[in-house]
Amino acid sequence: ATWRQSLVGAAFDLRGTGLVAGRAGARLLGLDGFTTDDVELIVPRASRNRRANGVVRSTARPISPADVCRVDGIPVLRAERLILDAPLFAFSASEVENAIDSAIRLRLVSEQRLRTKVVGLHHRGINYGRALLDALVDTGGESRLERMFLRLVRKAGLPRPLLQRIFRDGTRTVARVDACFSGGLVVELAGHGTHSSRRQLQVDAQRHTELTLRGIRVLTFRYEDVRDRPEWVVARLCDALRFVA
Fold this sequence. Notes:
Layout: H1 3-13, E1 19-20, H2 22-28, E2 40-44, E3 55-59, E4 68-71, E5 74-77, H3 79-84, H4 93-105, H5 111-123, H6 129-136, H7 144-155, E6 162-169, E7 172-181, E8 185-190, H8 198-213, E9 217-222, H9 223-228, H10 230-244
Parallel strand pairs: 2-3, 8-9
Antiparallel strand pairs: 1-2, 4-5, 6-7, 7-8
Helix pairs in contact: 4-6, 5-6
């Protein structure tokens, strides 16, 4: 038996009322960091007494056809609804953040739409709305590294940068940068396994050159900088922003 067969069997046990959700749904959708063989499903509140070979949670919030997609023929919650219901499966803060960041990167959710939905849950007094709201504080990037950087910037009291800005020369894309501060300051973040091949180094150098010729200053911080010496990163940002001001 494979993990996918287990999902199909569990869904069948629920007589068509259940959908794959939680960590199982996150893995099925290809979200970052979800690799375990969890079998987790969600059903409407009216079917909460049904049992299956896995973890089954119920929800009082209607599940519309727009909340559902199929992966390899298996019905699963779409990323947005899966994230909204993640607290039902006791996702850790890190798991919620991973789900949000990777869903944004994969273009499975709109950050602004997700933020609006989460704020709505919180204002309606949904007891897990606060946990989702906290996870959205430093979101907007497309990776764990960008989230770490945004948290560092926020705690230092520095202005939040514009993320994933695209610079163009007519119809040609010159660069897509990780973070852009006011005054023509760009920050590039280099994570594990990126910016290391000869081709990628060439692309990085070209992007840096093109931005420099347009009067834009570029700072580059590696994963180890943001993780291991945040004070140094903040100090360099302050120096650069002070120079801009």
